[in-house]
Fold this sequence. Notes:
hydrolase, single chain, Bit1, peptidyl-tRNA hydrolase, alpha+beta, about 180 residues, disordered N terminus, globular, 10 strands, six-stranded mixed beta sheet, peptidyl-tRNA hydrolase activity
Amino acid sequence: MASLASPFRFTLSVKSKSSSSFPFSSSGIGFRAPSRIGFNSMSQPAGTESGPSQDDESVKVEKDNSDVLVQYVVLRRDLIDTWPLGSVVTQGCHAAVSAIWSHKDDPHTLQYCSPQNIDSMHKVTLEVKGEPQILNLSEKLTAGGITHKLWVEQPENIPTCLATKPYPKSIVSSFFKKLKLCK
């Protein structure tokens, strides 16, 4: 299998019976020749080398004008300053996964996690000062009908972060406009 740094992709394929001396030939498994992958995406084949076409430009403009789906993750600044960074990041991951899994049948979540969008998810990670602020934000989101997961670390019972389910940005951005980006 090619490493992540390799610009080539090896594709596993099932072959019909062959008299090849390849070790897997009797099982019907073989490898196709590698194909070149562009450096813009690890999972998508490279486009034309001559640059974007007129159609590519119109698609890009259309995507820019559409209402992008976004998931907001909000962490507590006081925990970022006092806990190991990995622990705080893990709390955010827990909240994000829980928010998506809890709403896995929601149309926005299905679109956000679809094969076409899986490599271009949009998340915004913000911060609040501490526990009172994250609880207040959770109450405002609930009152505004914004579905989210307030992650409470157990057994300590500490609210550490929250994450929304995926929403069109135009619907949820107003709830987060006064918060700072997490740095």
